Amino acid sequence: MCLFCKIVNQEIPSNIILEDDDFIAFHDINPKAPVHILAIPKIHVDSFNEASADLMGKMSSFIQKIAQEVNINESGYRVITNIGDNGGQEIKHLHFHVLGGAKLKWGHFSDADPKGHF
Ligand code: AMP
User: Fold this and answer.
1) Is 44 a catalytic residue?
2) Higher per-residue confidence, 113 vs 28
3) Domains: count for the chain
4) The pTM of the whole model exceeds 0.90
5) Does residue 5 line the site of ligand 1, with CB under 6 A?
6) Could you give the CA distance from residue 17 to residue 113 in angstroms, rounded to a whole number?
7) Is residue 67 part of a domain?
8) Is residue 115 in a domain?
9) Catalytic residue among 27, 93, 95, 117
């Protein structure tokens, strides 16, 4: 069973902010911003590549509720999902990073030439 499935099953503790029938949201253990929350489906989905339109629709509403719950909906925030090796996905259970609480910088994404792919 993957780490986030264990969090869903409460075999590993987490600091849960919001939960419904389909999703949970909890604080990232290694925050990259004053607010850094992870939103995950309770069912195991490897990554965004396997996420259905139905799941993503519900996930959008859930993320909007998180932003309201922690009061960053007006000040602004960023939603990120990392996919696969090049995307930097460490945990192979679909999750969305919800980052906010301060003005976020636009990151440095790659050492490769940004104009090099197409
Ligand atoms: P990613 O690199 O997109 O797969 O992100 C995985 C995230 O999970 C990282 O930001 C980690 O800090 C976070 N993380 C790993 N283990 C835990 C845990 N037990 N509780 C909360 N967050 C975790």
Assistant:
1) no
2) 28
3) 1
4) yes
5) no
6) 39
7) yes
8) no
9) 95
